[in-house]
Prior knowledge:
The chain is of the alpha/beta class. Helix content is 46%, strand content 13%.
Amino acid sequence: AQLCAFTSAVLRAEASQEPGHYDVIHSHYWLSGQVGWLARDRWGIPLIHSAHTLAKVKNALLAEGDVPEPRSRVIGEEQVVAEADRLIASTADEAAQLVQWYDADPAKVLTVPPGVDLDRFRPAEGARARLGVPDDALVLLFVGRIQPLKAPDLLLRAAAHLIAYDPALRSRMIVYVVGAPSGSGLDEPTSLLALANTLGIADRVRFLAPMPPDDLADYYRAADVTVVPSHNESFGLVALEAQACGTPVVAARVGGLVTAVADGFSGLLVDGHRAPDYADAITKVLGDRAAFSRAAVEHASRFSWDRTTGLLLDAYADAMTGPAFGSDPARPAA
């Protein structure tokens, strides 16, 4: 509903500058890509686009109870993919999906993994004391939107299995769920609370609203394991932030999580979405947590903001010097 207003604001921003003020346009998500497409044609500069999520991929991997992305989004994404001068994929898997599902020109697709703020998300002592968490607590953490796609219910079910395996864990276990209902999760905003009651673990679960990154970092540090059980992730930045803080991750073996988590090194990847399998993976990580924690920090260090921005700047330069903009007299040079 705000697309026209957004387009107007973008064009006004450019009109307030001297001609040639902008060298490239980098749009994020398909709606911004539609605006970027118009601006690219008006300004004669390259359009670089990051999809972040792809409707066709999401629809192919729908969680139970989730609703498919509309046809209008699929068409919009197809248009942006066809028009963009460069397409930025988070992983090699996403790059392949752009080619396979959207008929993207492979020569235009570049893989640039997202980065994490390693100054903010890093190991630090005292997180449990700051949060009032006992030193001997077993802390499991979920961070993300509360919707079927993200599968936060799977963490609650896995926690219930852990307690069933070892009832002595009940008094020590704390399950933090950080996030708010989104998308189809808005249809049943209290469903997780109801599930916790049904599973008999409501007294062990703490629901927290989205919070500033500095506060979130302490929850990562306080956790023994962060669980990312999504049905699909284009990358999985939560997994990377947790590892940067020294917390190993148990995640679904889907999409970008295969890149974000080094399976068997910084955490464990789980096939499918069965709660007992997640409970087993959590148990394995806890059995050698110190080693997983060290490896998590090492793995996350490879995904710095400096690396990401350097690769993006290379992509911008590549687009600016490409045939359409570096030498073609039919279009103005950037």
